[in-house]
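Revision sheet: structure tokens.
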Amino acid sequence: MNGQLDLSGKLIIKAQLGEDIRRIPIHNEDITYDELVLMMQRVFRGKLLSNDEVTIKYKDEDGDLITIFDSSDLSFAIQCSRILKLTLFVNGQPRPLESSQVKYLRRELIELRNKVNRLLDSLEPPGEPGPSTNIPENDTVDGREEKSASDSSGKQS
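Predicted:
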């Protein structure tokens, strides 16, 4: 053998659970839906529990996610492509983020908030601390239209 893998006629499954993507060569294309679910539980051991409700979807030629509900859906998906790209949804949604990812995202969001606050502070005219009372009539704050203080009592003298 020359060191090359013979992938002719084989099916490749690329399965994604959250951010984790696995590549699995399949020799038997007559795989059933139940066998696929068991395979996913083995491949994503520790992340996918046997009592989890798993929904498996594949990407079709248009890039749409199509649900695989049974073995006939799986057969059709296999006929469409030699590389079957699967996305797994657990209990109705992709697996929640790991706690380390949540901590990282929280830190990033706090940093962004601080940058936005510094930018807003730098736009304040000098000598006028706090929010400006001269907001133009059409500016919005928190998605609501705000009127300036002079508009609420008629013309300011």
